[in-house]
Amino acid sequence: MIGQRPPEAAPVLQTSVEDLALAGDSVDAAMAILTVHHWRDVEAGLRQLVRVARKRIVIATMDVATLARLWIVADYLPEFVGEHTARFPPISRLCELLPNSTSEVLAVPRDCTDRFLAALWARPHALLEPATRAATSPWYDLPAATVDEALARLRNDLDDGTWHERYGHLLEHAELDVGLRLITSTIAV
Length: 189
Prior knowledge:
alpha+beta, Rossmann fold, four-stranded mixed beta sheet, 33% helix
């Protein structure tokens, strides 16, 4: 991702969130997008964000209870629920740890250009593309045999019309709550 940035982009610092190499109150805002579940220590990471941000912290993360009900997980990757989704802190806990915070649903549009797992709720065929799966971490969190079996079931359900019978109604929606949440913490006004 760093290599894809345009040359005129702001400088980038590659560091661990639990030990940010920044002075206190040194940035206006801190942002974490679909990354909290990869942190070693969520509370330490949040403390660091609060320490360095002067005005605002913005976090996009997943509500795993909603994600677990999404067809991708419920029907094809139920193994992802539990140990793997436990890495996603509850939204209420994140809000408790951040000052003056609010949480809101970020409905994902049917044609969302990002290809994180839940963003493909209306494009099941995209999940069969290796390049698509390579861009999102859940596929790496499960054993290869589990992934292969899930993809075989999905391919079969798409081929024989089962997926469309069960979930074709979703295609009528312009957007869907797939569990994506935006947490905003206001440090100062």
